[in-house]
Amino acid sequence: MHAGYVTRVGAWAGTAVIVAMAAAVTSESKYVTGTVFAQGQGGVFTSWSPAINVQSIPGTDPELNTASNDGCPTLASDGRTLFMASNRPGGLGGQDIWMATRESPDAPWGAPVNLGAPVNSAADDFCPSPTRNGHLFFFVSTRAGGCGGSDIYVTRWRNENLGWEEPVNLGCDINSAGNEASPFLVHQAGGTVLYFSSNRAGGYSSEASGAITGDDDIYVSEWHGGVFEPAQLVAGINTEFNDSRPNLSRDGRELFFDSNRTGTIGGADIYSAFRASALDPWSVPENLGSDVNSPAAETRASLSWDGTTLVFGSMRAGGEGSTDVYMTTRVRVAGQ
User: Fold this and answer.
1) pLDDT digit string (tens) for 244-294?
2) pLDDT at 41
3) For residue 19, what pLDDT is reported?
4) Rounded to an integer, what distance in angstroms lies between the CA atom of residue 320 and that of residue 314?
5) Residue 236 maps to which CATH number?
6) What is the span of the domain harbouring residue 90?
7) Which of 16, 211, 263, 292 lies at a 20 to 30 A Cα distance from 168?
8) What is the rounded distance in angstroms from the CA atom of residue 210 to the CA atom of residue 177?
9) In a domain, 64, yes or no
10) How many domains is the chain built from?
11) pTM summary value
12) Distance CA 299, CA 73 (A)
């Protein structure tokens, strides 16, 4: 096992929990400093381009989007790997996590392949979230042994021969009796944090007495002493509506999420917020507008590591199935 792989076992809701892999988290934190974010984050960008179906990229395999539910997309840091969730035929259960690759960041996408066990299971497995160094991999699953409905799990890629380690539930200080979604690990000024959404009771809006779920809200958990602390609501972002599936720029200064709050174009729309630094409050979230959103639902937006591409799921008309993977791009303004 990798040196420095720290195992912390607790008992929350009767589940043994390995909370984190400290060496991997520590090694990634070096990306908080230096020039990597200046290359694509924290600058001035053009507006987002009109969204396109990823299937429409010339040369892309015709099975990227299917007649099934294809969504929850996210790009790996190399720009050559696209993870998504799909209930297409050939999986292990309901929703499975699939991976498509391409030869370069500008090349067309190949056919998605199923990640297989132990990442996928006979249950629903979705919301894939790779970390920058490609070793840690967060996702959500409804498999047995969790804290409630869909829980956040983490696994680690070892190598081509050993593959993925057995996924571990993050425990019931992070997970709840409700449903969690879209985990995203951020190394920002001030430390490492995990963003995610949850419909647990006790969120932004009050629930009836005895309720265990409510509307979706966005939460954050800080990493201290080798463990994730109990999750807290993200200030300035949540409403009495569903605010779901967060994703951040790699410097922690831009936040993307979907919401069905008042003012959407259709169902759920993609919103973004900005802050001057990771220690500052978030701006008032803004709808990304009709070039990105549609009269249907847009969900689980994910920003590329260089900050120029946003992939997301959409139920808009003209797609291959009930939900397809779409993308929009922007360009950094020269000299900014």
Assistant:
1) 999 999 999 999 999 999 999 989 999 999 999 988 999 999 999 999 999
2) 55
3) 41
4) 11
5) 2.120.10.30
6) 27-329
7) 211
8) 12
9) yes
10) 1
11) 0.88
12) 9
Question: SS3 string of 6-36?
Answer: CCCEEEECCEEEECCCHHHHHHHHHHHCCCC
Cβ pair 323, 316 in contact under 8 A: no
pLDDT digits (tens, 9 = 90+) for 110-147: 999 999 999 999 999 999 999 988 889 999 999 999 99
Asked whether residue 19 is assigned to any structural domain, the reply reads: no
78 part of a folded domain: yes
Give the amino acid at 174. Answer: I
Virtual torsion, Cα 92, 94, 97, 99, nearest 10 deg: 80
Residues 226 and 6: their CA atoms lie apart, in Å, by 8
Locate all alpha helices (DSSP H) within the chain, ordered by sequence: 22-28
Q: Is the dihedral of CA 131, 118, 68, 56 positive or negative?
A: positive
User: Tens digit of pLDDT for each residue in 144-173?
Assistant: 999 999 999 999 999 888 999 999 999 999
State the Cα–Cα distance between residues 171 and 179, nearest whole angstrom.
Answer: 13
175: in domain: yes
